Design the sequence.
């Protein structure tokens, strides 16, 4: 019948049935095949992961300590034009270099304007009444130049021996060997001290006098006081009392005297006297300045303040940090 074998016909019918059944199943459950494939993916991935872990050991992760956060690069600073002004890398702070020289500090009397911080220097209120030092010098010599044999800037009024006044040697030596010493200008007596037992002579006096608000001169190892200066002592409550030391009775004055006024007499057995100047405008810049009195820190060469400076400089036998030959 039509030439088709029975076996072939049966197989064709069965094939058609199976295709139809498969198509019907897809129609009734769309995507089921896809879901099955997706559900199997984790299994496949897990299997692949297991293979990797068997071949290469995992590298352990080390966490950074919280106290050391990761540093970030510092961006460079720029100016308004966008030009780089500083390096982008942080710089290590360096300590400030120490000065190699001693810095000289100005005279500082503190906050007590009405009090003297040292008996020979007028208080701030007193200094305000004194003339300016502009162009001021001692207009006459304190002693006659002819009686001076030598001058050495080696005198010291401090325990360390730092020179702060000039030692002026005079002609001769003996009890009757006395020479007048006078005020070298119109000056203001500021302080007087009387001391005993400092030399072979019975007494040694020191007289301080202000030329102007910043310059205070003084003569020391004065063997006798003139009548006018001695009267200043007797008018005070300090006559017969110690004028130096812990319980000193201080004779503080601010009394104007004219140039040429006799201060006293020098020489005698010691055969010399001291001449010094304190200039509050010039600090010497000494090491350990706090261990010295004001008169040492602000000491200046007294010869430089004399009208006849060249004559006295010519008598100098040596020079140092206080005085140098001109």
Sequence:
């Amino acid at each position: 019948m039509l030439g088709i074998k029975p076996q072939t016909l049966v197989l064709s019918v069965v094939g058609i049935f199976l295709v139809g059944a498969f198509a019907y199943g897809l129609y009734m459950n769309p995507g089921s095949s896809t879901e099955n494939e997706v559900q199997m993916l984790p299994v496949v991935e897990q299997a692949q992961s297991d293979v990797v872990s068997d071949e290469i050991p995992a590298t352990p992760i080390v966490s950074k300590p919280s106290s050391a956060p990761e540093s970030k690069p510092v961006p460079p600073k720029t100016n308004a034009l966008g030009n780089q002004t500083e390096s982008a890398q942080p710089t290590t702070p360096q300590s400030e270099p120490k000065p190699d020289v001693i810095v000289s500090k100005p005279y500082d009397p503190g906050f007590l304007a009405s009090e003297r911080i040292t008996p020979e220097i007028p208080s701030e209120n007193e200094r305000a009444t004194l003339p300016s030092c502009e162009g001021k010098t001692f207009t006459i010599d304190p002693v006659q130049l002819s009686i001076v044999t030598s001058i050495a800037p080696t005198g010291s009024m401090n325990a360390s021996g730092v020179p702060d006044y000039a030692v002026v040697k005079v002609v001769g030596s003996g009890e009757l060997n006395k020479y007048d010493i006078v005020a070298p200008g119109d000056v203001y007596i500021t302080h007087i001290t009387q001391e005993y037992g400092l030399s072979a002579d019975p007494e040694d006096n020191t007289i301080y006098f202000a030329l102007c608000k910043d310059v205070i001169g003084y003569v020391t190892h004065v063997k006798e006081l003139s009548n006018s200066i001695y009267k200043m002592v007797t008018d005070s409550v300090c006559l017969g009392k110690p004028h130096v030391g812990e319980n000193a009775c201080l004779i503080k004055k601010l009394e104007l005297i004219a140039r040429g006024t006799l201060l006293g007499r020098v020489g005698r057995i010691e055969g010399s006297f001291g001449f010094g100047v304190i200039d509050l405008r010039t600090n010497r810049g000494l090491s350990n300045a706090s261990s010295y009195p004001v008169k040492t820190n602000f000491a200046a060469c007294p010869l430089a303040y004399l009208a006849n400076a060249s004559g006295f400089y010519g008598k100098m036998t040596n020079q140092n940090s206080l005085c140098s030959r001109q």
Summary: Helices lie at 6-28, 32-55, 124-127, 227-235, 294-297, 309-313.
